[in-house]
Amino acid sequence: MDTFGTTASRSNGTAVVAVRGDVDLYTAPRLWEEIDAAIAGTPHELVIDLSGVSFLDSSGLSVLVKAHKRLRPVEGTVVIRGAAEQVYMALEISKLTSVLTVEAPARRSAT
């Protein structure tokens, strides 16, 4: 299991939360705490960088929905960036790609 962690920054109305490790039942509450703190003061945009995440379960998906619901009343947006293919598939299957702004994963080149 990967070691879970987050880092947050903020600039010009955009909050960025970078996540590493697995996001599951045990780590999702910690992710929500970080996101909640990052969006305090209502930024216009929340970017969640999932490039360091290899596993995202329904608890993690729930955190993303919660962030969306928190920002929607202030016309804020949630952008998911850097999702690995497996994580992107979870977002796609759950239909979150139609609710959130989810950047498609980079395709691996055949070498």
Layout of secondary structure:
Blueprint: E1 5-11, E2 14-20, H1 28-38, E3 45-52, H2 58-71, E4 77-81, H3 85-93, E5 101-102
Parallel strand pairs: 2-3, 3-4, 4-5
Antiparallel strand pairs: 1-2
Helix pairs in contact: 1-2
Descriptive notes:
There is one protein chain. The chain is α/β, with parallel strands linked by helices and 111 residues long. The protein has a single domain (5-101), classed as STAS domain (Transcription Regulator spoIIAA, 2-Layer Sandwich). It contains 3 helices and 5 strands, in the order E-E-H-E-H-E-H-E. The chain has helices spanning 28-38, 58-71, 85-93, and strands at 5-11, 14-20, 45-52, 77-81, 101-102. Strands 1-2-3-4-5 form a 5-stranded mixed beta sheet, covered by helices on one side. Helix 1 links the parallel strand 2 and strand 3. The model has no long low-confidence stretch (mean pLDDT 92).
Keywords:
5-stranded mixed sheet, 3 helices, globular, alpha/beta, 111 residues, Transcription Regulator spoIIAA
